[in-house]
Amino acid sequence: MGPLTVDGLLGPGGAIQAALERYEHRPEQLALAREVERVLDGRGYLIAEAGTGTGKTLAYLVPAALSGRRVVISTATKNLQEQIFFKDIPLLRDRVGLELEAAYLKGRSNYLCIHRFEAFDREPKFARQEDASAWPLLRAWAMRTETGDRAELDLPDAFSAWPQLSTTPETCLGPKCPLYEPCFVTRARRRAEQASLVVVNHHLFFADLAIRSAAAGADRAGILPRYEAVVFDEAHGLEDAATEHFGVKVSSFRLDDLVGDALRAVPAADARRELLSAAAIRVKSASEALFSEAPRALGLFASESAVRLTARALQPLRPKVEPLLEALSALASASASDEDPQALAISRRSAEIAAELDFITLGESADHVYWGEARGRGVFLRAAPIDVARELQSRLYAAVDTVVFTSATLGTQTGFGYFAHRMGLQAEDGPQVEPLREISVESPFDFRRQAALYAPSHLPETSAPGFVEAVAEEILALSRVTGGRAFALFTSLRNMEAAYRLAAGRLAVPALLQGERPKTALLEAFRARPSVLFAAHSFWEGVDVPGEALSLVVIDKLPFASPGDPLVAARIEQLRARGVDPFGGYQLPEAVIALRQGFGRLIRTRDDRGIVAVLDRRLVTRAYGQAFLRSLPRVRRFGELGAVEAWWRGER
Questions:
Q1: How far is CA 498 from the centre of its chain?
Q2: What percent of the chain stands above pLDDT 70?
Q3: R_g of the chain, CA atoms, integer Å
Q4: Domains of the chain, with CATH numbers?
């Protein structure tokens, strides 16, 4: 076995190759690992694109483990987080002999809160009979679990009592909780403080960063220990995660939770109960008045809709907002006079919600976009920074001198400039952080042999009548070629559902539809037998189906973000105001990266073979289609169904 160095572990004949029977040395992986090592040793910022099959996880884990620094590994999904912690790290530690301590952290809501569990256990109440039936199993688990992680328990996703048994960053009592020391989150954090590698997901990372870097949250503890470097895997999704957590959101659900917790904060026999209850009921009344009026005032007529808001559009709500602000202030005062930690938490939450609601409904910051959303029975009022670049510079880069960004899809046909600019790493006139390094390593797969692109030009324009019908016919024809085994990926739920209705009954194989079952159940059914899965959004990325189970990926449209989305519209306006063409400077590169993600679902191993079909004629009829084509792997391209079928059958 070679020495415990990057080359000694990942190089030809190295320790990892010796430990794994089927492991193949990959020069691309070693080149990436050396670059990550250079940045971790010398400090700096690295943009690293690694094609599918490179083995990028080990390429950053090995130098991170050898660096002697505490490194946070942040991923886009819990699935990848689990793979790193439960598969890749044990490989390095147990099979290769690399000494390292690692910890695995999730957001607070994933852990049982002992304090809230004990309160609930005294008088359990359930919204549904199924939840009551699951309680004995959950209660027995709560008595024996070492981690408190909900994932240990086979609990239904829809178990409605879980929010009463766990906490969020907002509802956690922190160090003032009487059960802080035995708390599962406290124990998880203590384990992380002893670890050199801490594995998290993007949402936890940015939730923690937002708490730490906000003045209002200076006295609230985050979950993550202090760290010296960060590796962001699947970094193409960072802007969305940062935007979500650097913004603010006030909803009818959030007010309902506050009121419920306030009413439970002191026992019925306590002399303070009457005053606190009166203040909480006042908040409830004012909240109901606001959120019953908001849909009409803001134009939220559908149960799933979003409307961008201006300061002027928000003004009609202020007469309903002011009474709620006053009620929240009264609740904050009523609960602040006591040293009881639960009451003090109610006071803090009331003040925070009031400040955020006031900020949103004034709508005065030119750097933020404001919008309202209707989601099921809930109404949400939101504000978020239009551009997270400055937020990242002040909150992250000012505090951490080493950050690695890696993904299979960070670049466009012109390089990494777009990603670097959006992440605040680079300005128009040069780098914003120093030193900034870049590396791109190709996939070891032979895409020319393994994959074909079907890009027809005969279908209707995407906005024309009959487009969805034509897409359904193409899905039927293509699935006959491959025997199903297909993902049909859509840019909108409406087109997904319409195509499913048109094609499902005519397919020779089962048809699966996103939303009918949990994602994991759909993927299990898809792998079990040849099928066609109609999906959108979450299936474009982070889904791994190697082998012949997935032989066809059909994409209905080029994935341009809707200009009607409030955040997209605000970014377009901001770029125009800066004199930047929003199409070339934002909309096109975003769509290019999204298409690369969709394309990447197909070829996952050296033995995979299949077809990607893009049914949007703009790919071959518009000049900007070349930007998409140049960003994709070099594959055989066909415009006729007969030609791609002949390729599939090995005839050309």
A1: 27
A2: 97
A3: 26
A4: 248-385 (1.10.275.40), 447-648 (3.40.50.300)
